[in-house]
Predict the structure of 4-aminobutyrate--2-oxoglutarate transaminase.
Amino acid sequence: MLRDALPEIKTLLPGPKAEAVLKRREEAVPGAIKSVYPCVISRGEGAMLEDLDGNRFLDWVGGVGVLNIGYSHPEIVEAVKEQSEKYFHGMMNIVTHEGYIELAEKMNEIVPLKSEKRKTMFANSGAEAIENAVKIAKSYTGRPNIIVFSGAFHGRTLLAVTMTAKKTYAFGIGPFPDGIYRAEFPYLYRKPVGLSDAAAVDYYMEKLQKVFEEASPAEFVAGIVVEPVQGEGGFVPAPMEWVKALRKICDEKGILLIADEVQTGFGRSGRMFVSNYWKDAGCAPDILASAKSIAGGLPLSAVTASAEIFDGVKGGIIGGTFGGNALACASALKVIEIMEREDLCSRSGEISDVCRSRFELWKDKFEEVGDVRGIGCMMGIEFVTDKQSKQPHTVLVRELVDYCVRHGLIVESAGAYSNVIRFLCPLVVTDAQLESGLAILESAIESCR
């Protein structure tokens, strides 16, 4: 079975069948939707995919965090099939469908928030979830402004791309929405020289205070939006002491703390959400946005907040045609059931232990491996020209991505300088597949450095 197979490359890439489809893509699809991988998927199972020419790849990207449950889980296929035979769609503004209610109840149970009484709404994508979280925060507080961070990625809609730090995603498409202000994220690997981690937390909180002083007074800020682990920003985790300080200042100033768990959620961190760790530390968010792995590959996203916050939102501000689609809700309910039953959060921890120990060995072995970081199975390896200068080694990472795919491993870069290899492997990867992927990546580093 493909789900138990190992990487195997049978042709030059792209193979002849894949090349024909890629030529059609070039003619039919905008070039701005880029792909650097010379393969065309034919089928996928578990953590493996097979292309049209029979080449088999281990996928360490998982649709950029969408496939924590893996490709084509048979129980999810059956759940979607069963729902499809009843009805595909029922818009919640017109008729109520029970799957939406059941999934909202489940999300209210599992999402860790400051408040214990919660409600959930559904949309279609991570960017939509973020947009709705912002609208909810503004409507509830009556305040106009939002604070985001350096290194942030929140999506490609006009508001979300304004909130996103990397301006490659926003080049030439302004003017942009007003009221978005940016503070510096605590990127501890690149903190000011001479500062301890503890001192760095104070340093970055002072940077946030400057935003209140020089951009938007706190009383005009509706929410602070933060990724518990920055995705596109280079898999940089938010230090817990900084999150505690952020929670404290939000409480003091009447600001809502919004966790963007679009990529970090659903078992990736070793808990269902990184905010589970936050709640244990006494700094749970007020609003949590999730998407990606929520429905095993079907378009779905969620915003969960306290009942008080949702009840303070004016009618007509939130909702949408496809939000909480019946097929997607059926898939999401089955995804959560499988994750809980098979304890994929613990499996995430096991995978993380194996990978982190290997990555740390590489850090000692290779001058180009500057930093290894992350939470659970959301890990990044930052490559530099040398450990002293920490100069980003973008060229090396580009070569690593190319080497890996041509040897059957799909990996992706991240970070402001695209010098980080991100690890987002499906949590259903087998031990043998994991070892195979580690061997390919280590060979890539040895060959390309």
